[in-house]
Amino acid sequence: MKSLCGNSKQLFLLSRKRIVITIDGPAASGKSTAARLLAKKLGYLYLDTGTMYRALTWKALRDKVDIKNPKALSDLARNTRIFLKPESDLNIRIYLDGKDVTSSIRSPEVNNYVSLVSAAGGLREVMVAQQREIANRGSLIAEGRDMGTVVFPEADVKIFLQASFQERTKRRWKENKEKGLSITREEVETELANRDRIDSQRKISPLKRAKGALVIDNRHIDIPQTVEKMWEIVTKKMKC
Predict the structure, then answer these.
(1) How many helices (H) and strands (E) does the chain have?
(2) What is the C-alpha separation between 56 and 175, in angstroms, rounded?
(3) Does residue 34 have a known ligand-binding role?
(4) Cα 72 from chain centroid?
(5) Is domain 19-227 annotated with CATH 3.40.50.300?
(6) Residue 44, SS3?
(7) Does the annotation place 33 within a ligand binding site?
(8) Over the chain (240 residues), what is each successive 10-residue block's mean pLDDT?
(9) Spatial CB neighbours of 130, under 8 Å, sequence gap ≥ 6
(10) Per the annotation, does 70 bind a ligand?
(11) How far apart are CA 102 and CA 98, in angstroms?
(12) Partners of residue 142 on adjacent β-strands
């Protein structure tokens, strides 16, 4: 039988086994864009868990839920429907209880509270169950902060994406500027530093490199080059 390794995408598409690839890393490391592009290249589902937590944070703030009350947050998660709708331009539209909140969840206020909300144990249990259910629909790229450590510890391929704090600050500031958000570079630095601290020090599902995860430091390379490195890791792991 002719080997399919000459056409890696064909191999992945024809495989009967549901394949899970996890991409973890800190804020502004380029996870979302790179993961979307890799998912498109492979023809896989794309799971952006960060947007799910952002959507819940937005709802908690809107409904004035006490974000320091774990039970209130877990109840909120159980009574919330989140739907991620892929679009042809690689963007994802986020619907919360039927409402399009794609733009709303990127506000500075949500940025300030999303790490606190996502650290709530009961809420994370609800979200992890939902994320694992999505994996039952087919092979996917799962992107977040605890994909390889907690949600999919048996993933076929694990990648940890990182960049220097200075580079991530520059990226996030540029991103906010392009969106027309009025925020200084100093404010971005403070926001990222707080998120890094909360994400890495929280008791439940802290951000860390998963066992067996391969590291890509993309501080000096762009997104297409990052995706190419991911592609090389995936094809090598799948023995092509």
Answers:
(1) 9, 8
(2) 22
(3) no
(4) 24
(5) yes
(6) coil
(7) yes
(8) 44 67 96 94 92 96 96 96 82 93 92 91 93 92 96 97 97 90 92 94 93 97 97 85
(9) 52, 82
(10) no
(11) 12
(12) 22, 47
- Collapsed DSSP state (helix, strand, coil) of residue 92: strand
**To which H or E segment does residue 23 belong?**
strand 20-24
Binding residue per annotation — 28?
yes
* Cα–Cα distance measured from residue 186 to residue 50, given in angstroms and rounded to the nearest whole number: 23
pTM of this prediction exceeds 0.85: yes
The answer on whether 31 is annotated among ligand-binding residues is yes
Tens-place pLDDT, residues 66-93 = 999 999 999 999 999 999 888 876 678 9
122 marked among binding-site residues: no
Which phi and psi (to 5°) does residue 144 adopt? 175, -140
Q: Which pair of structure tokens corresponds to residue 10?
A: 């064909």
> What is the distance between the alpha carbons of residues 56 and 169, in angstroms, rounded to a whole number?
24
**How do the domains of the chain map onto residue ranges?**
19-227
List phi, psi (to 5°) of 37: -65, -40
Which two three-digit tokens encode residue 209?
């490199």
Tokens of 172: 């996030």
- pLDDT digit string, tens, across residues 105-145: 988 899 889 999 999 989 999 999 999 999 999 999 999 99
